Amino acid sequence: MKSTKKFITVCTLLFALALSFSTSAAEFNQVDTIAIKSEKMGREIKNVVIMPACYNDPDLQEEQYAVLYLLHGYGGTYKDWITKKPELKDLATEHSVIIVCPDGQDSWYLNSPIDPEMQYETYMTEELIEYIDNHYRTIADPKFRAITGLSMGGHGAMSLALKHPEVYWQCGSMSGGLDITPFPKSWKIKLRLGEYDNNKELWKEHSVQGIVETLESTNQRIIIDCGIDDFFYKVNTTLHNTLLEKKIAHDFISRPGRHTWDFWCNSIDYQLLFFSKGFYQAAQQEK
Length: 287
Fold this sequence. Notes:
Blueprint: H1 4-20, E1 31-38, E2 43-50, E3 66-71, H2 80-84, H3 88-95, E4 97-102, H4 120-135, E5 145-149, H5 152-163, E6 170-174, H6 189-193, H7 200-206, H8 208-213, E7 221-227, H9 233-245, E8 251-255, H10 261-286
Parallel strand pairs: 3-4, 3-5, 5-6, 6-7, 7-8
Antiparallel strand pairs: 1-2, 2-4
């Protein structure tokens, strides 16, 4: 197993050399837009894949990389993150990771029991993972996968990882709607799970708060970030307190901020540092 520290060093040095010779990082093919056929949903899903600047260097074709799956929020698309945070290309190089941004539509990243075209839990834990591992030079091991997202994507990232620790070892949330049950009329959730009044247990089972309440323990690395002026702040603090009561280790960041791209573009910088530390630890354990 190659060390993540080695990946970071090689990519960072190459990137620095490129800049020193006035070579723009944009000259590297760093961003792919791909469509993946979901057999479960019977349709194609688009995704952005961001690679380190050194990924296509002919001298480094044996290098493998950890992967961060980065999810958009309600009303967003697979293009949101790279559009709002073009510096993700630099961060992919700095941390030597592949970043994958799937199109989650307004699915809440769950398998809907009432809509066969919204089966995103299967897509995110099986179909997408298989495709990325087969078509990119990834380290195909859960210790080298992380998942996070904003708002709806924060809920999706946490729920997917906590339900599937065999897929994702690290997970995070930025301004996540970590308990959907207080919002029975909002954000099309009822189109995925049915009316809340008739499906209360189903809503709880699909909520991160409900998942954590039944969780006995986990060795996953978890980071949660939410602004104090965010309308999801209360559900974030409630989840934080539940994790504390259960003695489940996690990082919880509470700071000034609202439900805005300014907050998320800042948050992802810190979350990538957190995930990179985890990838490095995993690489050291493999030695």
